[in-house]
Amino acid sequence: MKRVIVGISAASAAAFVTAAPAQAAPADPIKALKGQFVAGKGVKFTDRTTLTGDGTNVLILRRTGSFQFGRSGIVASDISAKAGATSDEPAATAIARLTPERTIRIGTTSYTSGGVLAEKLPKGKVWYKDPQGMAAGGSGWFGQIVNVAEPATLQTLLRSAKKSHTTYSGTITFGKLAKISPWFRASLRIWSKDTAVAKYSITMNRDGLPQRLTTSYPATGLFDSNGWEGKTISVETRFTDWGGKVSIKAPPASKVTAKLDDD
């Protein structure tokens, strides 16, 4: 009887091992990202920017947006920005002047509505067109400067990062970002220090795609002014709806101008 029981137990264990599914290999983030590059598809995101230092911790900017993909990567973006909490902090005052603002960018051409340009638009026009425009209008100065939807940028960040479960953390200089990232260059145009260091943390979802990105860097990396000494800009970005339908179009031509009243 003991032999029968042992035999049954051994057979059952063997069957269980045979039937157990193989452990799935971790998703390759670069391959997963490139797999999203389908015409008419894209991803949505939200940004929250805070300024800390000198005893302050102020939410200065909120943004919502989307990237539209083509076979080679990002082909268009649509970003709306608004000021965060009301504050006497100079940066919050600057943001209030820059927002509310919306920027549509198709290729390298941007269309910006609102913000500091609103009062400079000719009567009847709502959008300012710039063939080599900034990626996110005025809000780009305080928005997310790291774009993990760019394969070369994501690959560089992951290569030098420390990994813990599904989160990658590391640092990168503004100078290195400028070399590899079209988004960084188009968002800022100019900055104060190539040597400024941005800290980053990227958390992936189950498909190996970025779900949450946080960055922080000294404000003096952007602005060469004593008023920014000792202050840090931090941005949290969350990505949703990877692979969803995204269709970004230029505004109606009748509402667009390439000239400002003070030109």
Automatic annotation (TrEMBL):
<protein>
    <recommendedName>
        <fullName>Lipoprotein</fullName>
    </recommendedName>
</protein>
<keyword id="KW-0732">Signal</keyword>
<feature type="signal peptide">
    <location>
        <begin position="1"/>
        <end position="24"/>
    </location>
</feature>
